[in-house]
Amino acid sequence: MNDILDMVKQRGVPSHTSNRVTDAGALSDESVAIRLGSKTGDPNVITISCSDELGLACDFARLIFEFDLDVVRADLSTDGKWCLMLFWVISRQGPSNPIKWSQLKKRLTTACPAPPSSLIFPFNKHLDPKRNSYLLQTCSTDRGGLMNDLVQALWDLELDVHKVNALTSPDGRAVDVFYLRDCRKFLAVSERQEEICNRIQSVLGASESFCRLSIIPDNEFPESLDLRMFPTLPEELFRDDCNGLGADLLKTAPTMTEFSINIDNSLSPSHTLLQITFVPRRGILYDCTRVLRDFNIRIAYGRLSTNDKGAGDLDLFILQENGNKLVDPDKQNSLSNRLRKDMSDPIRVMIVNRGPDTQLLVAMTVENNGRSRPRILYDITLVLKMLDISIFQVDSEKISYGDRLWEVYRFLLIEKSNSSFRNDRMRNYIMERIRCILVGK
Predict the structure, then answer these.
(1) CATH number of the domain at 130-222, please?
(2) Residue 370 — φ and ψ, nearest 5°?
(3) Helix count and strand count (H, E) for the chain
(4) How far is the C-alpha of 179 from the C-alpha of 159, rounded, in Å?
(5) 92 vs 62, which has greater pLDDT?
(6) Is the peptide bond before 122 cis (omega within 30 degrees of 0)?
(7) How far apart are CA 258 and CA 277, in angstroms?
(8) CATH 3.30.70.260 spans which residues of the chain?
(9) Which of 1, 115, 126, 290 could serve as 119's disulfide partner, Cβ 3.0–4.6 Å?
(10) pTM across the whole model
(11) CATH superfamily of this structure's domain 223-251+345-441
């Protein structure tokens, strides 16, 4: 660990004992401490000290992203057994929709691994926290923004949407099916089911609405499917080279001229230095750490910093899972290519014709374990709600393509008399708004 601190000091990178950490305030006995900024616009500081495990930084970065917070600075350090992580975050939400800090703290604390048995007694290392999975079925009179309201309620209830199938019937009824995973642990099933149903019923409103929640085993969750199972999905939605047919309807990230990756083994005798320069955007730290977890890469020390001009730097001292440096050129190239793809262009948006209908397609890469990118369904439906665009049908699937796992949302849109989705200008506007809310600054 000392060689890391020497390297970062020589390069002008603050160590975890620097003023930046001191600035966060004294560490408390709690695993997670949150100190809010003294005035509007000041970063809020999240300090986490707990046992370490592979991919832990990804879990924390995902939760911070899920609560609509941008990480403007970060310091990560670990000795392989214990870690200290600090995140300087700013809210994207206005004062009318404040961050639920107590809920975030609870979720971050829950994500912390249990201490080693030598530090706490008694401790059952074989104890596996129980997270229930549910199948939610609802039926009610359709209305504008109903899907967005349902997804917001599910998030408030700390439920992850694994898959969705929704349809508007000819008589104007909205029929929705959600596969859900509970983020809370060790809950009495009957009480939790009652809480969820009551909340969803309040969103559905009318007394003739229907809500059914049933618990299901995890192995009943839909598996990922091959792209060949969906012949109507355009292949260019997943390709890195989007110059083929339909590329004019595909909205991807602009060329990131300031995005670069450097892997260096000369600065440290025991660690590989991964240096990334990027244009800041939503979820950039999460996208990086999820790739590292997928490659079983450990972070020994890391620092993220951004400046007022919109540039960001990420310096990480990394190790393979076996504790060795990353020296194999093929593994280096594979990691570099994956980081470049998933950090610069994780979201694809396309609008296509389906006969007389218009279909909105949104695809994004997900973790190898199938865990979805947070806030996707909520953010997309929020844009459609704000644009007063009604949804006739929506579904989602996990799809394998190449060496990556994708999640695809398909929205069949209802065209109104005062607007036309066949107009290229309107389509580009919709796609731009969706990209902006999903990954934009």
Answers:
(1) 3.30.70.260
(2) 90, -5
(3) 10, 18
(4) 10
(5) 62
(6) yes
(7) 6
(8) 130-222, 223-251+345-441
(9) 115
(10) 0.86
(11) ACT domain (3.30.70.260)
